[in-house]
Amino acid sequence: MAAKVRKTATKLADGRDFFYFDDSPEYVSGEKTRRLDDPRPLGDRFAPHVDEDGNETAFTGPIMRYDVLTGDWIPMAAHRMNRTFLPPADANPFAPARPGAAYQDGEIPDTDYDVVVFENRFASLMRVPGVPDVVSYLDEGELLAERPAAGRCEVICFGPKLEENLISMGEKRMRTVIEAWVDRTEELMAMDGIEQVYCFENHGVAIGVSLHHPHGQIYAYPFVTPYTEKMLRQARAHREKTGRNLLADVLETELKLGDRIVAQTEHWVLYVPAAARWPVEMHLAPRRQVARIPELTDAEREDLAGIYLKMLQAGNRFHQNPDGSYVDLPYVSGWHQAPKGAEDDLRLHLQLISIQRSPDKLKYLAGSESGMFAWISDTTPEKIAARLREVWEG
Amino acid sequence: MAAKVRKTATKLADGRDFFYFDDSPEYVSGEKTRRLDDPRPLGDRFAPHVDEDGNETAFTGPIMRYDVLTGDWIPMAAHRMNRTFLPPADANPFAPARPGAAYQDGEIPDTDYDVVVFENRFASLMRVPGVPDVVSYLDEGELLAERPAAGRCEVICFGPKLEENLISMGEKRMRTVIEAWVDRTEELMAMDGIEQVYCFENHGVAIGVSLHHPHGQIYAYPFVTPYTEKMLRQARAHREKTGRNLLADVLETELKLGDRIVAQTEHWVLYVPAAARWPVEMHLAPRRQVARIPELTDAEREDLAGIYLKMLQAGNRFHQNPDGSYVDLPYVSGWHQAPKGAEDDLRLHLQLISIQRSPDKLKYLAGSESGMFAWISDTTPEKIAARLREVWEG
Questions:
Q1: B314 - beta bridge partners?
Q2: Which CA distances in Å does A194 have to A94, A148, B122?
Q3: Is residue B180 within a helix (H) or strand (E), and if so which, with residue range?
Q4: DSSP symbols for A322-384
Q5: Which GO biological process entries does UniProt record here (chains A, B) (predicted)?
Q6: What is the distance between the alpha carbons of residues A112 and B230, in angstroms, rounded to a whole number?
Q7: SS3 letters for A98-142?
Q8: Would you state the torsion angle of the CA atoms of residues A275, A279, A284, A290, taken in this order, to the nearest 10 degrees?
Q9: Is the separation of the CB atoms in A199 and A115 below 8 Å?
Q10: Would the CB atoms of B74 and A253 count as touching at under 8 Å?
Q11: Sequence-ordered list of residues with C-beta below 8 angstroms from that of B371, at least 6 positions apart, any chain
């Protein structure tokens, strides 16, 4: 692993995978603190379920149903209803273990860490050992299908402190996060049945964040997501028509026109897409054909750490309150990576979107968006880009 | 027009179409009150725009961009940023005109009404006379396309009183609303360039409702919406494979299995779809092949008025607070109608969805939904259906 990051793999008490990514010798996890094991008496997460009458049923994990009206798979994670929601600071499950405590409620066994990744305790995608990944049907006519939601949901904590965020932690830590994305994308893409890996971050209560600790998520889907399916269809039609890669042509066109370019570095281009559908939307793309994060060179990763943080900073200067202060932008920032077999058609790019349409107003996904999937924008891509350029240097 | 509804067409001062649908002789609009004209000194809505330096530019209306990454058209209504948002009751623009007032700010010229429909003042879809509906390109390579968003957005007010709603107004009024949907679907589908008509209602502040007055909306899209495109692709694949109509087969299967059926009447079936993606979701379908609302028989419309209101009532009993009171369910309720040319493939059905996942929690569309269009449900369709059956009779 590049960039002097040390990975240590361990397991939580209930069998979930847990990885430390330490970025500075002497490494904090297991060296200074020497406590990598999870001391909690957590039960086997695959244990049979016992109902009120004492009857046992085997745990088969979450399922997903095929929506025959749209062609989408819908994972159904009914067990997630009771997940932790905005706990007080002293019950933060992503805080490091308290030194000397015999038992603790959090997810982190060690008393310090740099970056950690672990399987989500409330996973909507989960492969359960012994449960075959096969389609079954609710009806004899085989119209209504279901399958195990045999993917994987991981959490990535960017640092040990509740009050920090990616921006305050700086480029060196960002670089470690990138290495963690590289590692997880490689390992998850190699797993049976995984079609696509999505590394993303939800930021802000307005977007539904349920824990304030600075963290992101990594979903390994056992299907190609609907957004990616749309992109694949468009990319393949474009290749048939022109012989070229769609995302390469989009990037070249945006660079030529220039009106929606926000910033450029040696290896990356940040622009507002010509049909931006959200009040704030940015795409961050490498200059060359890259299908997934692990293919990025060291130089590209180094460069990315810088522009990623500048992008977040510009987002935080986008909306200004009447008193001159800025709105901490709620956002979803996620990596579009090629699914298996689509390495030539798709191209790695990050999409950052925000529902904040003014300092005090949010965009809601109401009838047209939720019922018809037909987005309506209240602004223009050129206005978004102009504002971002205006606030880029701070 | 059936059901003893009288339609009166008029115009607002700025040229927008305005329709009264009166349901009881003596008819309230123009008979009892005799004031159908709009007395406001509103400017021509298609007037040229004059900038700070006095330069005139022709008003060309909203445009839409083609999102080449997804294949979706995205209307961009930058002029809507300043639309009215949750005004106080005395500034309710959907209230009837005050008797004797020489001038009023509201949208309703008459001092009373039953149901009215009019073109939205802050329309994201609008055909501007003289603006040709042609595609142009941002770039020489013709990759980034735009077109006028030459559709139409109408508002439908269900009644004159701010504090009422469809449930409190009752079946007779609901029947009038159905007649208004029939009328508008027929007229809008006959307009140049309109592909699809969507009659829907956003209910509740949590879904982004910007005006409390009981109202719905009618969008006439100049394109086939992404959701409908997905359904069409699935329906056509199903017909190729089986020779049958997809939605007919889904309905037949749901009736046979029964677990997700909520209620049935002579002409309608209300069920939770097998792959429901929202915390609450119901589909309401006629028993026979009907492409759009105007094809419904009188008996089907009559029957619909009853089950529609019972459906809303059951929704309002879905979530119970700890004190025994119920949550007024925020919802989107919208009609999927066949676009032009797809009358045999698609079938009319209503979809009601809610983001309320517990009495005090909402479902947010975060990373997976917003970034990947991959919905994850926190419940199961069978649980939703069981709860709805439990509260159906109140």
A1: none
A2: 26, 12, 45
A3: helix B171-189
A4: TTS-B----EEEEEE-PPTT-TTT---EEEEEE-EEETTEE----IIIIIH----BSS-HHHH
A5: galactose catabolic process via UDP-galactose, Leloir pathway
A6: 48
A7: CCCCCCCCCCCCCCCCCEEEEECCCCCCECCCCCCCCCEECCCCC
A8: -50
A9: no
A10: no
A11: A198, A200, A227, A332, A334, A351, A353
Cβ pair A226:B374 closer than 8 A? yes
Looking at residue B78, its pLDDT comes to 72
Question: Which of A76, A224, A259 best probes binding to B when mutated, by most B CB atoms within 10 angstroms?
Answer: A76
Q: Which tokens hold the place of B117?
A: 């429909």
Q: Which chain A residue lies closest to B140 (C-alpha atoms)?
A: A253
Q: Provide the token pair at A288.
A: 């060359």
Residue B134 has which token pair?
């042609």
Shortest distance, CA A103 to any CA of chain B (angstroms): 30
* Closest CA relative to residue A366, chosen from B153, B381, B361: B153
- How close does chain A come to B265, measured CA to CA in Å? 23
B361 and A253: CB-CB below 8 Å?
Answer: no
Question: Contact at 8 Å (CB) between B365 and B357?
Answer: no
d(CA B73, CA A275): 8
Domains of chain B as residue ranges with CATH? 6-40+59-223 (3.30.428.10), 227-391 (3.30.428.10)
Tokens of A342: 């689509």
Hey, are the CB atoms on B74 and A208 less than 8 Å from each other?
no
Closest CA in chain B for residue A370: B332
Structure tokens at B269: 């079936």
Residue A142's pLDDT band, with cuts at 50, 70 and 90, is very high
Three-state DSSP class for B184? helix
The 10s digit of each residue's pLDDT in A353-380 is 999 999 999 888 889 999 999 999 999 9
Strands, DSSP E only, in chain B? 6-11, 17-22, 49-50, 56-57, 63-67, 72-76, 115-119, 136-137, 145-148, 152-157, 196-203, 215-221, 261-264, 268-271, 280-286, 331-336, 349-354, 356-358, 361-362
Helix ranges restricted to H, chain A: 166-189, 226-242, 246-257, 298-315, 372, 381-391
DSSP B219: E
Interface test with B, best of A368, A369, A387 (most B CBs within 10 A): A368
pLDDT beyond 80 at A32: no
